[in-house]
Amino acid sequence: MTVDERPPRARELSSWTTRRWLRLGVSVALSVLVLLGATGAWVLERTASISDNLVDVKSPSLTTSIRLESALLNQETGIRGYGLTGTADFLDPYRQGLSQQKTYTKTLSGLLRGNPARLRDLKTVEDRIETWQAQIARPIAASPAGKPSPLATENAAKGKAAFDAMRAVMSEQQGRLRADRVSARAELASAMRMRNWIFTAIAALIVALAVIVSEALRRGVTEPLERIGADARTIAEGDFGHPITPTGPADLRQLSGEIESMRRRLVRELDFSEEARQRLDAQSADLKRSNAELEQFAYVASHDLQEPLRKVSSFTQLLQRRYGGQLDERADQYIDFAVDGANRMQTLINDLLDFSRVGRVHNTQQRVDLNTVMKRTLTAISVSIEESGAVITRDELPTLIADSTQLGMLWQNLIGNAIKFRHPGEAPVIHISAEDDGDHWRFAVTDNGIGIAAEYAEKVFVIFQRLHTKDRYQGSGIGLAMCKKIVEFHGGTIFVDLEHTGGTRIVFTLAKRPAEPGESQEPDATAATR
């Protein structure tokens, strides 16, 4: 049966999204929980009310009534003793009983407030007490002390009858109060049983609701998502022909359709990418072969140019020594130009030969103590340091796996540039710093020289790029390009720190260990641009 062939109600439900189902489920769950919470609150409030009534009213009322009876017994004992003996000490229990009577009567009135029947009982008790006290107690207490009171003997029978009637009324009162307490206890027990049943039902309903919600989520959300995830994993594992089956609520079916569309587009793009990759592999192979041939050509050309250039340089120098001053001034100038050009060509070829050897001839990976390399470098350029009066300081340098010769060339070029490009008449101040940067060591060569403008920060690392004329600063324009090649060969990056002012700061990184085949050890882009 297709979607259009299903009943209208079924079609409407099939169009519901996950959010709509969740809203419905949450609304039903909240309604049930609110109803259960209200029922539970009512049961708890009822149980607490009955318990409070039992503890705060019923039991204290019975206890106070018993204490009131005890106070009246004390009064009766004191009056009887005083009437028979006339001893004033017997009036103490009577007076104490009167005080207690007032206290307990007032307490009972407060406890029985809102209970008219028990207040009537209390009023009956108070009337009986008043009758006994008016007829017997107060007249005897008013008799003079020191001798027996005639009233005690005359009214003995009458007093006993009045007191017994009073006690009978109090016994009836206490019986009703006791019955009220028993009734309250039974009501409390019933309320507690109802509370337990209701909370058991609430717990059962919550468990049932949790099971229903869990099952609904499993069928409506979890299982469809798992099926979509399984199909997606199958595709991710390489089976791009595996289709995505729409299932679940409307939005999940829409998601499945979008993933299926993406899969089909991905298949088309992968077919195109595979063709492009094959072409790229062929071009990469051609480029590697071309680069290898270019490096070989640079090496051979620079190497093979050495011999003829030495001859040109030797004969021009010989010509300068033998005929210098014998020809006219213009001829001497031409000879000087030839000698200078030959010398600069010799320097350029030597630098180009060193550049072509980086990574090809000098490639001995071993533990290298950069402190030792630095000392060797400073010894090699000691003449330049002494002539310029340079002050060079450095941090403690690390030991890493690298090519010692290449690192010596790196330090010599960087420190040599810091000495060369100084302000006239000012001694160079150079500092070499090093800090641990995860898988790399970060170094910086900082000087107080003429600096590098921001627009030339990348140009200086291109081979044969010079920022100054040869008349002002000598050089071939290969030094920083060679530094970049050495640093990149050791898995690092090199750049000019444009935030530094008052000179130049060249920052570069070196990997702590050689990169495995196919592994990149270059620092992240943010670190390389700091």
Describe this structure as you would to a colleague.
It is a single chain. With 530 residues, the chain is an alpha+beta fold. It is 68% helix and 7% strand. The chain is built from 14 helices and seven strands. The protein has helices at residues 8-14, 18-85, 91-111, 116-142, 150-154, 156-236, 250-304, 306-323, 329-357, 370-380, 382-388, 404-420, 479-489, 525-528, and strands at 366-369, 391-394, 399-402, 429-437, 440-446, 494-496, 505-511. The strands form two sheets. A five-stranded mixed beta sheet has the order 2-4-5-7-6. It has a two-stranded antiparallel ribbon with strand order 1-3. Helix 8 (306-323) runs antiparallel to helix 9. The longest helix is centred in the middle third of the chain and has 81 residues, at 156-236. It is elongated and about 180 Å long. Residues 517-530 have low confidence and may be disordered.
List the helices and strands and how they pair.
Elements: H1 8-14, H2 18-85, H3 91-111, H4 116-142, H5 150-154, H6 156-236, H7 250-304, H8 306-323, H9 329-357, E1 366-369, H10 370-380, H11 382-388, E2 391-394, E3 399-402, H12 404-420, E4 429-437, E5 440-446, H13 479-489, E6 494-496, E7 505-511, H14 525-528
Parallel strand pairs: 2-4
Antiparallel strand pairs: 1-3, 4-5, 5-7, 6-7
Helix pairs in contact: 2-3, 2-4, 2-6, 3-4, 4-6, 6-7, 7-9, 8-9, 10-12, 12-13
